[in-house]
Amino acid sequence: MNRAPWGQASWGGIRCEEHKVNPQLVRLLIGRVGLSLVTLLAVSAVVFAATLFLPGDPARAALGPRADPTAVQSLRREFGLDRPAVSQYASWISGVVVGNFGKSIPSGHPVLEMIRSKVKNTAFLTIASLALLIPLSFVLGIVAAIYKDRAPDLLISVPTIVAVALPEFVIGTILIILFAVLINALPPVSLLDGDETLFSQANLFVLPILTLLATTLAQVVRMVRAVTIEVLSAEYIYMAELRGLSRTRIILFHVFPNVVSPSIQTVALNAAWLAGGVVVTEAVFQLPGIGSALAGAVTNRDTPTVLAITMIITATYVLINLISETLILLLNPKLRVKNA
């Protein structure tokens, strides 16, 4: 645990002096970026291979079971479905690199045009949930630790433990019954109007956001609480109290900085889960996002759309993990700087 001089902030356990960037940190960061790119490439290959084993013929599914065989074969040639799998993957991945995910087989329209609005809806839901998750988890976790085994701790810990055991669709259903049926304060479903801005329809996102918060907040709060309890028992916190530093100063400048680093990975895991966990939540509230788009693409055997959505989700996972690992490295005082 980082130990700070009394009366000084313990961000990384070092004071503001002249330092040079540690070459080891630079190498580690470059390695993390390279590993993330390799992971993304490997996942893309696996996802592409998996789509080849989806039941049915995409061209036949697009034209219907009674379509003329000549038309089916022509459509297969148009989308390159008659080429070897390796050739198809090479063409697809080269297009992805430049932002071209191909065209939807059933409609013939560019995939990104078809899913852009749904990706935007999901991104709005995810970012809003994450913007609330991070500050709330630290505030509740630290408060629960400060008042360990007392009323505030119980009021925070008991609901979070219960929430951990409940899946998203159960929590979503409970919220619908409570806020839409009994209180009649919020709409039970999130039927968005494409002609209106998302901010003007913010009330439609309240219940989905609460559902995502309930399923993710619990784990992060428990982690922050455990780390905070450990920090509060450290010797330097005791010495800071003996020096007469206010409780608020100790929490802000000595406890909180030392809680952030160990909790980053837990926050990142839950943030990454949000990228995929929204699928169930969107289904519960009928919110038109990537979940419904992915389900429809699989049903219609629309391989390019399936690939695009899965790669967007995968890229989000990889990016969040890369950011969390970078923050952990930057907060490590042994790696972050090198004394001049």
Structure overview:
The structure is a single chain. With 340 residues, the protein is mainly alpha-helical. The protein has a domain at 113-339: MetI-like fold. It has 13 helices and 2 strands. Helix 5 (111-146) runs antiparallel to helix 10, helix 8 runs antiparallel to helix 10 (247-285) and helix 11 (290-299) runs antiparallel to helix 12 (303-330). The longest helix is centred in the last third of the chain and has 39 residues, at 247-285. The radius of gyration is 25 Å and the shape is flat. Residues 1-18 have low confidence and may be disordered.
Q: Nutshell version of this structure?
A:
This protein has 340 residues and is mainly alpha-helical. The protein has helices at residues 23-52, 58-63, 69-78, 85-97, 111-146, 151-164, 168-182, 206-232, 235-242, 247-285, 290-299, 303-330, 333-336; strands at residues 19-21, 337-339.
Beta-strand percent range: under 5%
Oligomer: single chain
Question: Over all CA atoms, what is the radius of gyration?
Answer: 25 Å
Mean pLDDT: 82
Alpha-carbon distance between the termini?
24 Å
Largest sheet: 2 strands, antiparallel
Known CATH architecture of one domain? Orthogonal Bundle
